Amino acid sequence: MGQGVPKYRRSRSQRRMHRAASYKFTPVTINECPRCHEPKLPHRVCLNCGYYRGMEVIALEEKE
């Protein structure tokens, strides 16, 4: 049975290129707040209205 051992050694550049294939940046996901319709990060309190999942979590001061 095969053991998954490489037959030949990889050069430094090949090794670095192989590793670099998985180091990709993913764009940040931005959702819309269902209450105030401002952009917010998922699973976080909306910084505009202070609500999360329909409950007020942060009491924000009214802007005048």
Helix/strand layout:
Blueprint: H1 12-20, E1 31-32, E2 39-40, E3 51-52, E4 55-56
Could you describe the 3D structure shown?
This protein is α+β, with helices and mostly antiparallel strands and 64 residues long. The protein has a domain at 30-64. Helices cover 14% and strands 12% of the residues. It has one helix at residues 12-20, and strands at residues 31-32, 39-40, 51-52, 55-56. It has a two-stranded antiparallel sheet. Strands 3-4 form a two-stranded antiparallel sheet. Strand 1 (31-32) and strand 2 (39-40) form a beta hairpin. The protein is rod-shaped, with a radius of gyration of 24 Å. The termini are far apart. The model has no long low-confidence stretch (mean pLDDT 88).
Share of residues in helices: 10-25%
Instruction: State the helix count.
Output: 1
How much beta, percentage-wise? 5-15%
Tell me the structural class: alpha+beta
User: What's the helix-strand series?
Assistant: HEEEE
Through-space gap between termini: 74 Å
Tell the overall outline. rod-shaped
Strand order of the largest sheet: 1-2
Number of strands: 4
Look at the structure and give the mean pLDDT: 88
